[in-house]
Design goal:
Distance between the termini: 42 Å
CATH class of the largest domain: Alpha Beta
Number of helices: 13
CATH architecture of the largest domain: Alpha-Beta Complex
CATH topology of the largest domain: Spore Coat Polysaccharide Biosynthesis Protein SpsA, Chain A
Number of strands: 10
Structural class: alpha/beta
Shape: globular
CATH superfamily of the largest domain: Spore Coat Polysaccharide Biosynthesis Protein SpsA, Chain A
Radius of gyration: 20 Å
């Protein structure tokens, strides 16, 4: 479709069928009908590609891109490069969106004449939901130096705006500044790194506190389980982010939050990664590998920071365990945390 108001890009790889169908159908059911839907099959070895083709036969607005597996960043880029809409929206293949998301955000973006529209998010667990909290003012137009403050909020873990999804982005802003996802980072903190470059060029934005985006917690996803390769991708992301910050005009504001943000990664890598009960390695191997992880220069530096703003008491306790190498306690906390998530 040419001249669509919004291009919705959905990267897909090994998404369980019930989640994928709900995602695609939620996009197809948008009250704003002048959209194009780009389903990117990132070389998924299951039925995902066939399911995409099935929906494309039902709706002419859908275009399916089948490609060799290249990771989340590569899939998002493949969709973006084919997009023709005035606005760009990313929706992950296992999530879903409210029917009026596109219409409401499009109208707001056009009315306020901004480059970016952000919205609320609901995180869905098996037995409960959690509405994200934000530090942003609803319907306020952020412009000029306020966009630099927004950029710093990307590094605030509790700011909840460092994702590629839950946003409506001006395609012109992305094209004019050649802002693509870094495919070398593949997956990890790729959304944060992408957003830092996006917000560096951003001149105007608005936030609407309506939870249009439904993020589905999947305990089998890469981010919620132990994957040593992915731990390395995350570290590479943060190394690139630090280099970006060191050369940024907004360095002072960004640097104050960088190590704080990395603390969350270090804690998650312990509890949901190495010491996650789903990691079948021996306790000795878990301990040895995580100890090696803690010796990485960027990790050692982050552990020295005194900025613990926003960390919950539970996270502060885990951080204390990490600093004093109380690995047996981390192993126990991994079991406790998994139980907590399964019973949410």
């Amino acid at each position: 479709m040419n001249n669509a108001k919004i291009s919705i890009i959905v990267p897909i790889y090994k998404v369980p069928e019930q989640y994928l169908r709900k995602c695609i159908e939620s996009v197809m059911s948008q009250t704003l009908t002048d959209i194009e839907i780009l389903l990117v099959d990132d070389g998924s070895p299951d039925k995902c590609g066939n399911i995409c083709d099935e929906y494309a036969k039902k709706d002419s607005r859908i275009k399916v891109i089948h490609k060799k597996n290249g990771g989340l960043s590569s899939a998002r880029n493949a969709g973006f490069l084919e997009a023709t809409g005035k606005w760009i929206m990313f929706v992950d293949g296992d999530d879903w969106i409210e029917p009026d998301m596109c219409e409401t955000m499009y109208k707001l973006g056009e009315e306020k004449k901004v480059q970016l529209v952000m919205c609320g998010i609901v995180k869905e667990y098996s037995h409960s939901t959690y509405k994200y909290k934000f530090y942003l003012q609803e319907n306020k137009i952020y412009s000029g130096d306020e966009c630099k403050w927004l950029q710093a909020q990307l590094l605030n873990y509790n700011g909840n705006i460092a994702t590629a999804y839950s946003k409506l982005i001006s395609r012109k802003l992305l094209v004019d500044n050649n802002i693509l996802h870094d495919e070398n980072l593949r997956q990890g903190a790729e959304g944060l790194e992408f957003n830092l470059r996006l917000f560096d060029k951003l001149e105007s934005a608005v936030f609407i506190d309506k939870p249009f985006y439904h993020y589905i917690y999947n305990d089998k996803s890469i981010s919620a389980s132990h994957n040593e390769e992915n731990h390395e991708y995350v570290v590479k992301c943060f190394e690139k982010i630090k280099y970006f910050i060191e050369n940024s005009k907004n360095k002072k504001m960004l640097l104050s939050w960088f190590n704080n943000r990395l603390l969350y990664v270090i804690i998650t890598t312990a509890i949901s990664g190495y010491f996650n009960p789903t990691n079948t390695e021996s306790y000795a191997d878990k301990k040895r590998k995580y100890a090696a992880y803690l010796e990485k220069p960027i990790i050692k530096e982050a552990l020295k920071t005194k900025n613990l703003a926003g960390l919950s008491m539970q996270r502060k306790i885990v951080l204390w365990m990490i600093k004093y190498r109380m690995f047996w306690m981390l192993n126990l906390m991994g079991i406790v945390r998994k139980w907590q998530k399964e019973h949410k």
